[in-house]
Amino acid sequence: MxxxxxPFVAQSGWxxxxxxxxxxxxxxxxxxHGMFPGGESGLIDAHLAYQRDVFVQAVQEKKxxxxxxxxxxxxxxxxxxxLDMNKPYIHKWPEALAIMGRPSNVAMSxxxxxxxxxxxxxxxxxxxxxxxxYTKRASLAAVxxxxxxxxxxxxxxxxxxxxxxxxxxxxxxAWIGSSTRQLGTMLTFGAxxxxxxxxxxxxxx
Length: 205
Description:
Layout: H1 2-12, H2 16-25, H3 40-61, H4 63-66, H5 71-84, H6 93-100, H7 106-124, H8 132-152, H9 160-173, H10 183-202
Helix pairs in contact: 1-2, 3-7, 5-7, 6-10, 7-8, 8-9, 8-10
């Protein structure tokens, strides 16, 4: 059902119409959209969960290449890989961000953002059990959410400006050497950045 619906998302956005068209394309009655609890938000939730599986498969295919890179470069490559997965729907992605910014959906949005940041660090090779684990993921989540929004407005060929923006933000993050005393500051920064981004996008649609 998700695979059948996504082509309609590229045309009609993250809407009940897309869900109903996806159901009809499979020969199901239009009421079959009810298999996505929450309607549009349920569709986004299922899409992000599916993207997580696709991301893991893509990482496995790039493992040999990633193993040759230093940690910070691996983080960048994996973050770009995850952002690239939005390209087929990038012109409709602001609508998804708006839906994710609704108060009832923020918890779902934060969970997926946390999963994305954790996956990137994990597959980059970070297994640190110390307090920096939280700092790195909170700061990467803030960087990712900013790049995610930037990409929706990027008109450069092959989104080269998004890559430049991401590189600059990652350089500023200074992952290595963060002290545990910075943890509270970084977590607060990450949470406020995400909520601000989602709220701003939500107010435009």
